[in-house]
Amino acid sequence: MHVLTWAARRIGVTAALLAGLLVVSFLLLHLVPGDPAVRVAGLNATPEQVTAVRQRLGLDQPIHRQFIGYVAHVFQLDFGRSFQTGEPVTEVIGSRLGVTLRLATAGIVVTMSAGVLIGLVMGALTREGRRRGAEASFALGTSLAGAVPEYVTGALLALVFSVVLGWLPVAGLTGPSGLILPTIAVSLAPAAVLSRIVRVETLAVLAQEYARAAWAKRLRPLRVYGVHVLPNALTAALTVGGLVFAGLLGGTVVVENVFALPGLGSKLVESVMARDYPVVQAVILLLGAAIVLVNGCVEAAVRLLDPRVRAATS
Amino acid sequence: MTALTGQAVPQAASAPERRGGRRAFRSTVVGPVALGVLAVLAVVALVAPVLGSGPAVTVRAADAVLGPSAEHWLGTDRLGRDVLVRTLVATRTSLLLGLGAAAVAALGGVILGGAVAAAGPRTRSAGLRVLDAVLAFPAILVAILATLVLPQATGSAAVAVGVAGAPGVARIVVTLAMTVLVRDHVAAARGFGVGRIRVFVRHVVPNMADSLAVSLSVVAGMSLVVVSSLSFLGAGVQPPAYDWGGMLSQGVRDLYVTPLVALAPAVMIALAGLAFGLLGEALARVANPSLWTTGDAGRDRRARAASGAEGAADEAPDDISEGPALLDVRGLTVTVDGSPGSAAIVSGVDLRVGRGEILGLVGESGSGKSMTMLAVARLLPYPVGSSADTLTLDGRDLRSDRPRELRRLLGTGLALVFQNPAACLNPALKLGVQLTEAPRAHRGADRARARELALAGLRDVRIPEPERRLRQYPHELSGGQRQRATIAMALVTAPGLLLADEPTTALDNTLRRGMLDLLRDVNTADGTAIVLVSHDLSVVGGLCHRIAVMYAGRIVEEGPTAEVMATPKHPYTRALLDSSLTMTTDLGRPVPAIDGQPPRPGEGPPGCAFAPRCALAEDRCARTRPVLREVPGGRKVACWVDEGSLA
Amino acid sequence: MNRLELRGVSVRYGRGRNAVTAVSGVDLDLPAGGAVGVVGESGSGKSTLARAVTGMVPLSAGEIRGDGTVLRAAGRRPRPHPEIQMVFQDPSGSLNPRMTVASGIAEAAGRAGDSGRTAVRQALDLVGLSTGLLDRYPHELSGGQRQRVAIARALAARPRTLVLDEVTSALDVSVQALILNLLRDLRAELGLAYLVIAHDLPIVRYLCDSVAVMYLGECVERGPCAEVLVTPAHPHTRALLDAVDTVPGTVSGTVPDTVPGTVLAGDPARNLTRTRKLTKEEK
């Protein structure tokens, strides 16, 4: 029963967030200074053209009617047509979704596994202030990886592996190898940040009485770290998982532009530059919904993994 | 940009020590280096646009895409402009926009966060929920959308990034303020009638300022990076103005031809971002005293230890009574970092525990009693080290340094229980896992046999429904059951010796009594020998056969419990007994107290360490250290003062 | 204010279905210059009672009167009363790490300038600390010194009543004795009234005239120490007395296996939940 209560509450929160997202994406067009119809029709348009656009978009209607119409269209998955190309927005997005999905999935897998593994190993090596040298290099390395933006990483990777070594394609989507550099570029910074968090969490767990008790049982180190430390460190990794995912998605938007990948991110940037509002609205809705849903799943996973959270939320 | 959202919120600092903090900052090395880099960048930002704005924009088609040369150190770009000059000139725009964005984020975040933190509990939790929801969206995405709404001007990029960063800062402010608001000194100040705003200004802000500075430094670096990302995407600085991000965006297109065009601004962005990040890290170390390295202090201690050791009296080898002991420790010395010259926490301790015996090890905090126990269990924390003339358990030498051998020797022979017994259970694992892993690892038991042992162990400590317990997590048990389960876990391999380190200190009287009772049962039922470490003589008195009293790393008195308690021979033991209150303490007189503090490791007089606090001290006490000598009645005492004068 | 009276004091945490009663219907009298101990296990509500008296948590029922005037009552927003001050268990948490000894005490005295400085010196003098410590920060003091500063700070507010919440349990035995002697001297010297919260019965016996025993949020027995701690009437009081560690010098005999109605350690919320359930069953 309490699981259901929890689920119901969680679904309610998700629904509220999605509703908020609808409002924000709707208001986007209206927050832009000046007449939206003029913006859409272009600065050189005649008054007649502007009026036509206003009617076509329903901009002459009162704002709540516009919103209702907008929501109705969204639920029919009808986002209108791109101003730039005249194609239906759903088709534009459909053709771009796959690349972003693959890049984001690869990124999150690499980030989570590398971040947790490196953080755990570094935590084990530097426990109780051991190996100060290794700790300093780790701090420096992760600072560097965390401070360098994805597009710089991407450019440097392209320079080394494509230009100098010629191993991998420099840009464009040419089979799976085309995703290797973008995945590294997207994952490097979040993995660095995550590994630092996991290391700190590992040290915290090792200082707990139950970790000392595990050592006192004379278990092998692999068992102490694998069975006693890892689940707790994983919970920590997952609780920041939502934030890591947000960072990854932001990185995806940028990295697609570096490697000229035909994904949602490059489409979003292109549409923002061209003030192609229907496309911007649809991409924002889609990315936002993905974020909201992923965060819901992360919360469920934390609940599943950590018996204490399960007890506290029931 | 990941780090902007994924930044771990630093804890509010508790106890700052200014001099120590400054030393900590210098000792990080990266702190001063980061400051130096930022200073150089600031000079470049000031000077370069004045000197180089001409060459930076002059188009010379003839010089296009040249490699590095004496004239153009980093070559030229597509339009024949000097890459080095352009990179340096762009410093001003890039830094200003980054810092502007950080300022917007900081200002917005502090106001927003302060409002949420200062609000009532309902508004606060609602505000937090909204902040968390906003934070789930990538900062770069929010910034891109904000540029849609803002007018197309160079400053807009800074505002857009600042707006995107503000919720993150707000979240940090709220978290920091809330950790401070629940502290007792805030409650105390309210009790004095100090007003709400004054409490915030004098008690909350100073205690979060350091941590906030750390976060803001990191936010500055991140803002710089996000602004350049925006420019890279074409949504930030608009041509003909340019910053590093914009340059990089053009450079990437010519990556095959002139990689330096992209490399130069990339390096600058990385450098500036790293400098801010490292500055934040160095500041974080300063704000958190627990991260300060002991460097100088440790050296001082070692030096003092070396000089102090000379005054010691000759170490007469103690003639320990014959007969096989379960645990035999002779000449155990524990030092702060394991090297021979370093300060000793424990010096020349001899301990013998017979089969089925309960020994109480008593002393104040810092007397070395816990370190003695951890040294015996070979579990000393790094970098503490130990040496001993003899260290045997059941006749087997424990002085090996090979983990495999120690696992074999100690896995079944010895078990430990720490200060808060209930916390010895891993909250993420079912009891079944935790109770069966030791027998499986050391007794070679299979799953079924290990389960039998675990069930028997739980029954022995009288936990009802043991089968069900094995499937439960620790939080599903009551506090008393958790303590019992911990004892069962320690005893499941049937060790001959149980080391219990202050197992009752964290408990109230009722639970304390239950724990002592359980230990006694374990002792009488299985003949398990126990070393009970405690600062409280009254706890030890009710349970132990024999007592050893430690002071400043040495045993000063040892003997059968009843005799030591009734007629203490060492003035320290007497003082400890007198100062603990009982239900029969004379209410008409003040409680006898021991003034002063015990010496720290490596400090103290060359003679008896207790002499400065001892009412009976004579001249020689401070000069020459008394050795632990045997006195009639199977007792030992390390004191010059005649036993007659103590009675 | 000469006399503190608690009438039917109740404190509830949370609201709706999740509400738990931490203190329920406690009556207590603290005469002028008197000392009353409140004892009980962790989770018995004794600390919550202290917080209610000092106005750190609101009452859900009942009232607290000082000299007959109502100081705190259910539904009334708790306000600080300088004449009631609290000394906390852990001085490293109750002293602001960013304030010197002098500024901390001056803040409590509520006076600035010369009269403030005089008040600070007087307060330090009372607890037997040298004025050389005035410019020290809390972390530059020993544990015993810190607790003395905390007591000096409370005294600077010129209270008539001190609420002492487990003030010695974070200290070593030898330091405990110093603080206990100081508290006894101060009471005699200044005519202060004490409300002593402790789980350690010998401390209450040493400091107080009378004692109230808390169990599951209710006061189950109260009276002069000489009676309650010698001839207890309530079984829980007997259980608490039995659990007191043996007198040094004698090796204890057998001990009761479990104390009836033990409230078990763990997180406070869990305790409170149990408390609620148990109280229901009892009724």
TrEMBL record, chain A:
Keyword Kinase: no
Top-rank lineage group of the source organism: Bacteria
Subcellular location: Cell membrane
Matching CDD domains: TM_PBP2
Keyword terms: Cell membrane, Membrane, Transmembrane, Transmembrane helix, Transport
UniProt membrane topology term: Multi-pass membrane protein
Keyword flag rRNA-binding: no
Family: Belongs to the binding-protein-dependent transport system permease family.
Protein name per its UniProtKB record: Peptide ABC transporter permease
TrEMBL record, chain B:
Main location: membrane
Entries under Gene3D superfamilies matching the protein: MetI-like, P-loop containing nucleotide triphosphate hydrolases
Membrane topology classification: Multi-pass membrane protein; Peripheral membrane protein
Pfam families assigned to the protein according to its UniProt record, in alphabetical order: ABC_tran (PF00005), BPD_transp_1 (PF00528), oligo_HPY (PF08352)
Coiled-coil stretches: none
Composition bias type Acidic residues, residue spans: 312-321
Keywords carried by this UniProt record: ATP-binding, Cell membrane, Membrane, Nucleotide-binding, Transmembrane, Transmembrane helix, Transport
GO MF terms held by the record: ATP binding; ATP hydrolysis activity
Family: Belongs to the binding-protein-dependent transport system permease family. Belongs to the ABC transporter superfamily.
Protein name: Peptide ABC transporter ATP-binding protein
Automatic annotation (TrEMBL), chain C:
Protein family (similarity comment): Belongs to the ABC transporter superfamily.
InterPro entries, per database record: AAA+_ATPase, ABC_transp_ATP-bind, ABC_transporter-like_ATP-bd, ABC_transporter-like_CS, P-loop_NTPase
Keyword 4Fe-4S: no
Molecular functions (GO terms): ATP binding; ATP hydrolysis activity
SUPFAM superfamilies in alphabetical order: P-loop containing nucleoside triphosphate hydrolases (SSF52540)
Species: Streptosporangium carneum
Organism taxonomic ancestry: Bacteria, Bacillati, Actinomycetota, Actinomycetes, Streptosporangiales
CDD domains reported for this sequence: ABC_NikE_OppD_transporters
ABC transporter domain ranges (all copies): 6-241
Name this polypeptide is given: Dipeptide/oligopeptide/nickel ABC transporter ATP-binding protein
Keyword ATP-binding: yes
Keywords in alphabetical order: ATP-binding, Nucleotide-binding, Transport
One annotated GO biological process: transmembrane transport
